[in-house]
Target: LLM class flavin-dependent oxidoreductase
Amino acid sequence: MGKTRFGIFMPPWNSPPTQNITTSLQRNMETIQWIDALGYDEAWVGEHHSAGSEIIADPMVFLAHVGALTKTIKLGTGIVPLPYHNPYHVADRMILMDHLLRGRFMAGFGPGGLPSDASMFGLDPRQLRPALDHDLGVLMKLLTSLDPVSAKTERYELNNAFCQVAPYSDPVFDVCVAATRSEAGPRIAGKHGLGLLSTGVISPKEGMPAPPLHWDVYAEEAVKHGHVPDPSRWRLVVNVHVAETREQAVADMRHGFDAFCEYTQKTIAMPSITAVGDTFEERIAWMNETGIGVIGTPDDAVAFLKRLAARAGDFGCFLMLAHDWANREATLRHYELFARHVIPHFQPTRERLLIAEERSRATHAADLIKNAAAINAWLPPGEQLPAN
Model:
C-alpha cells in the first residue's frame, strides 16, 4: 500500500474562552512540537477574529514561531480567509514564510467560517465565495507569474503588482482550498488546479455526508479547466480521540467535550459542524453512533479510518481535528497512541514487518537447530545448548 500522511487541523478550539490565552497558545505550540517528535507529517492552523475560542488571528505569525521549534513537520495555514485580505499582502508574506521554513510551508484558503468575523469587516457572507474564487486567481498569478497583476474590486486595488521574490519551493508551495458541505470549495479548488482540504463532517456510513461528493465535484471542475486531479493533494479532516480502553476514552472526554459541543451549538453559526445532543451521553452517541468520528481505542480508530478510506477512495492525508476535549495529559497520550498503533496500519512498512516476522517463524525450528549446533561447536561438552 502507499503511504498515507497524517497530521492535525487546529482551528484551534481553545474553549471555554475563560482560559488563560497565553497558556492556551503555548499549549497549541507544544502540541505541534509533540506531534513533530512523533513523526506526524502536517499541522494546519486557522485564522479567526471573533467568538472567543479560536484565538489565532494570524496563522503565519504563529507558524513562523512554531517553525523554529520543530524539525520536519510541514506547517500550513488552515485556513486564511482570503476575502478578508489584500491578495498581494498574503502572497508576499507566504513567499517569505516559504523561505523561512525552507519548503515546509503550505497554504490553505477559504471564504471565512465565522459570520461574526465577516460582519466586522463589512462583508456579507454571500460575497465571500465569489470573492474567494476571484482572489485566488489574482493570488496564484502573483505567486507563479512574472507578469505584473492589476485588479480592482470593492475591497482592494492592485496596479501592476509584482512579487519581487520567488517562492523557495519550486515552482510554488502546496496551495489548498477548504471545503465543508457545499460544492463551492471543491469547485474553486478544481478550477484553479489547487489541493482540496475537506474539513466538514464526513462519515464512512451510508446515508451520512460523504467525502466522494467533494472529490467528484473537484475532479470534474479540474478537468474542465485543464488541470489533472491529484489525489495526494486531497486531505480529509476527521474526529478522533483514543485511549487504552473505550471506557477511558469516554471518561477523558468529560474534561471539555461539552464545552466544544456548546460552542458549535450556541456561539458559532456554522451548521456544517453543529454538534447534536443536550447531554454528554447524547453528544458522545452523536460522535460514535453516526460514524462522523470515533472515541475509543486505537483499534476502533483503525477500523473507522479504514471504512472511511474505503468510501473515499484514493486520497493523500488524514488530519485529526485538534481540540481540548480531553485534559492535557490525555491529549498528549492520544497523539502518542495514535502514532504508535494507528498510523502503522496505513504505512507500507507494516506489511514488510509482518512478512519479515512470518518468514522468520517459518524457519524458526530449523534455524534454532543450526544456531545451537554452531554455538555448541565452540562450547565445552558440559555446557552444550539444547537443540530445540
